[in-house]
Amino acid sequence: GEAKQWFSARGQVRAGLDKTDPLFGQYKEANVILLQLEAFQSFVIGQRIGGQEVTPNINKLMATSLYFDHFYHQTAQGRTSDADLAANASLQPMPSGSVFTRFADHSYDSMALTLKDYGYMANVFHAYDGGFWNRNIMYDTLGYDQFFSKKAFVIDEPLGWSLGDKSFFKQSVSIMKTQRQPFYSFMISLSSHHPYTLPAKVQTLDVGKFKGTMFGDYLEAVHYVDAAIGVLVDELKSAGLWNRSIFLFYGDHDNSIPDWQPFEDFLGRQLDEADRFRILKGVPLVVHLPDDAHAGTYSQAGGQLDVTPTVLHLLGIPSSGLTMIGTPLVTKQPLAGKRVVFRNGAFIDDRVIYMPAEDGLEEHSKCYASTDGRLLADSSACAAGVAEARKELEASDLVVGHDLVPAMHAKRE
Ligand code: GP9
């Protein structure tokens, strides 16, 4: 009933964009290489410490890529697995637990399954135990041909929990090279995992006064991952895959550092409530198109649920009939009224940031102007969005919890 109506209305929004936007189908049959970065937040992008760039490789990549600087993670208790679900199935996480562990026997309209209908191979790469987050089971459900977990890799660069990202990326590309094209490859990095302590020889950034703190270790870890991204891009170029692929990466969730002082010291300014919310939720989305086109910084709001619809749009694959929440971000004109909804009912759009109160009382919730973060005395600017956000979460919960995707298809056919 209600969920069906909600998803079909959202499908119509995507269909409208597909029809009018010149980028729809611009990269038909390109390979898709999607990278999910562990605990990678956007506040480090483009920053320097002691004169040294924290993310020199990403900064360089920007010259030929699209960078979305108002892109947000939408994860909840399922952390890395929620980000994976959001980006690959365009659905919200559940209020508790992880969809990967609780509902791996339900059906989803995933990126892998959709692309396979269009002749793609689909593989997933993550150099850790295949059972973690119930991936072995969930990746079958999501429709991958193969899951290259830890046992598929030579541990020639032991780092943190497992294999270092540099070697992980190199080995993943050497597998991709042998695969039939077009393919979809999804990679999940790991080296920047909490608590971020990398061995001294891997710490190549002078973090000054942050040395020996978790925040300093985080900057070092992010700097290592940035170098690994440099390696990955070089490997993709020498494998001849770079200009035959849409390459995207995004951060999965925040770094769980609870104290705001180091953030303020690092950024050199005080952070108000709205700043903090944006920083906590802000993760990078970088999209490189095969022909280097449309490079630049894009400031419309977007979130992880938009990743698969964005890819399908560029490939020219219609998604109006798919049970997905997101909308394409790489378009000539940003979608008017775009809203990014978070699990607790918070949302961000181009006008406001809404945060529900911890005690659940509507009169304690807060509505900020998204332009300058000032608290709006009159919260009516948020009211319509609050109701819409609730509807999105309810529709998603019905689909995930009651396994409604098969019924949605039956209805459409
Ligand atoms: C491990 C990993 C980490 O396989 O992806 O998950 P997290 O602890 O960040 O949710």
Automatic annotation (TrEMBL):
Pathway: Cell wall biogenesis; lipoteichoic acid biosynthesis. It comes from the Bacteria. GO terms for molecular function: hydrolase activity; metal ion binding; transferase activity. The active site is at T80. One of its GO terms (cellular component) is plasma membrane. Mn(2+) binds at E38, T80, D252, H253. Keywords: Cell membrane, Hydrolase, Manganese, Membrane, Metal-binding, Transferase, Transmembrane, Transmembrane helix. It is found in: Cell membrane. Substrate binds at H193. It is a multi-pass membrane protein. Residues 31-317 form the Sulfatase N-terminal domain. Belongs to the LTA synthase family. This is Sulfatase-like hydrolase/transferase. The chain holds residues 257 to 669 of 669 of the full protein.
